[in-house]
Every structure is written in structure tokens, then in C-alpha cells.
Amino acid sequence: MVQFKIQLDSDIPASNQLFNQIRFAIASRQFPPGEKLPSTRALAMQTGLHRNTISKVYERLEELGIVESHAGSGIYVKEQGHEGGGRMQSPLLQKYPQADKVIQTSIDELLQIGCTLNDVRELFFKEIDWRLRSSARVLVTAPAQDIGIGKWISLELEESLGMPVQIVSLEELDAALDKSPFGTVVTTRYFSGLAEAIATPKFVRVIPLDIYDHAKEIEEVKLLPKDSCLGLVSISTGWLRASEVIVNSLRGEELLVVTAHLDDAYKLKAIVRRARAIGCDPASLAAVKAAIQANREDLIRAPKVYCIENYIDKNSINRLKRELGLV
């Protein structure tokens, strides 16, 4: 805390002594812009001056535009120039009051490492331009042999992002980016390394997506009676293989797991007739329900259907929104 001292036997009036000490403390940034100054009561106890004298000192400082009074709060060091946003009056600063300080800090850090202001401007413009171009197009990629997972991801993203999403197989990604070298490539972490090897040399960013942990569905699998049949139906052959492995690791030979691609009507019919429970993705749900209805007369008990609505973790989608500037 800054200490102010008054020499009562000095020829300089006490009020002038305090005025100059406070002014020096502000000018030397012992009290930085926006900082609250000591109350008149606190200064009176520290200096022995009457509170009215201190109030007049503060009034002089306020007349000079050095401090400002906030009703009911106290006296504060007034921010000067761009410190208080006076440099750039914009409605955006009212909407984002911290933006100015963030920009200033970023510019100052770049200047400290040797950039000129022209360098900073070019770097900012390049980054902004790159992000705008990246946000203009979203490409979902997956191997051609399991393009179904790309379709599942794209359905989720189009609903969540509110924008069209393009599906491109990993095998065609290189040619697609050569034809139109901008956008953002998204895929699961299973394939992100392969996608980066293609996209990064073309200065196209790849954002890996985390998959849904299926915790709720796993608990349902644990509760299935021994020797039950579990059916899995999906547009993704990869999801079917991975899910079968996970179920087997949980229950071993206690459960019979039967899988079917959405387009395999024969296996779907077999699953409906035998399974106690069926897990499927949103794209397959209608076909599963239709198959159950078509075979209802032959069923002793209709299988319970679990629709796995999410393949991508919701937090991961929110991060993608921020990266694309949609939040």
C-alpha cells in the first residue's frame, strides 16, 4: 500500500503536498488505471489531515481528469486514451467489454518478440481470413470401406451446426482439397492421423472429434440375461465391428451378438426374430421398427430397441462450434 506523508512544518501547504504525492503515485503507476484510491477516511488516518481537505484534493485531481468519482463506490484512477476504449468507439466494445484488453495484450506480446505493427496486422488478417475460409466448408472424412460412419457423423453435425456438411472418403480427400483448398476437415480420432497427413501440407486444418462413450448403453448390455441374443444394426460397418468387440469383452460367451448392416434385409429379419434387444443408429431406426412390425405375427415377444442417438460426444461438438466461430 502506498504511504503518504505530510510535513506539517513545511512551507508547502499540506493539501499541495498530498496533491502532488497522489499525482506522482498515479503517474508512476503505483496506482494503475482503474485502481481505486484510498478513501478520505483512510487518508485522514494516515496523514492526519481533515477529510474535507482530502476531498478538495480529490476534487482538484478530478478537474484535471486524472481521477473520477464513482457514486457510492469511491475515487478511481481514470483510464486515459485507449486504456478505457476511447481510442475506438464501437458497439462491439459494449457487447464484448474485455475484447479491447485481449487485443492490446496480444499485440503487445507480438511486438515484444520483434514483430512490427505491419507484421502484426498481416498476421491477424491472415489468421482471420484462414478461419473464415475454414469455417465456410466442413468436410467429414472416413475410409471408403466405412463411409457409413461419415454419414452418421454428418447427420449429427448438420443438425448441431445448422449448416451443410460434405462427406469425402479418405481416399478422395487429397483430390477434393486440390479442387477446393479451403475448409475444415473433421473426423474421429481413429482416422485423424491419416487425415492430417493429407490436409496439413495443403494448409487445411483437421479437427478430431471425440466419440460418445456409450455409457448408458453399456449398462443396458450388462443387465441383459445370460444366453440372450443382442442385435446391432447400423449404417457403419466399423461401428458394428467395434461394438461387437466391446460387448464380447464385457459379457464373453454369455451373450450372442448378431450384427447387420442397414442394407442387409435378410440379416435384419433374422435379428428381429431372434434378438431380445436391438441397438441401432438413428439412420437404421425406421428400418428396424418396420422389420419388427412386418414380423410381429411370428414374434413371441418383440425385441426392445435402443437407438444410439449420438456417435459424437456433445462436448466435442461444442468445441467444434467454437473452432468454427459458431458460438
From TrEMBL:
Protein name: GntR family transcriptional regulator
SMART domains: HTH_GNTR
A family per Pfam: GntR
Signal peptide: none
HTH gntR-type domain sequence ranges: 12-80
Keyword DNA-binding on entry: yes
PANTHER family linked: HTH-TYPE TRANSCRIPTIONAL REPRESSOR YTRA
Top-level division of the source organism's lineage: Bacteria
InterPro entries in the record: Tscrpt_reg_HTH_GntR, WH-like_DNA-bd_sf, WH_DNA-bd_sf
Entry's Gene Ontology molecular function annotations: DNA binding; DNA-binding transcription factor activity
Species this protein is from: Planktothricoides sp. SpSt-374
Keyword rRNA processing belongs to the record: no
UniProt keyword terms in alphabetical order: DNA-binding, Transcription, Transcription regulation
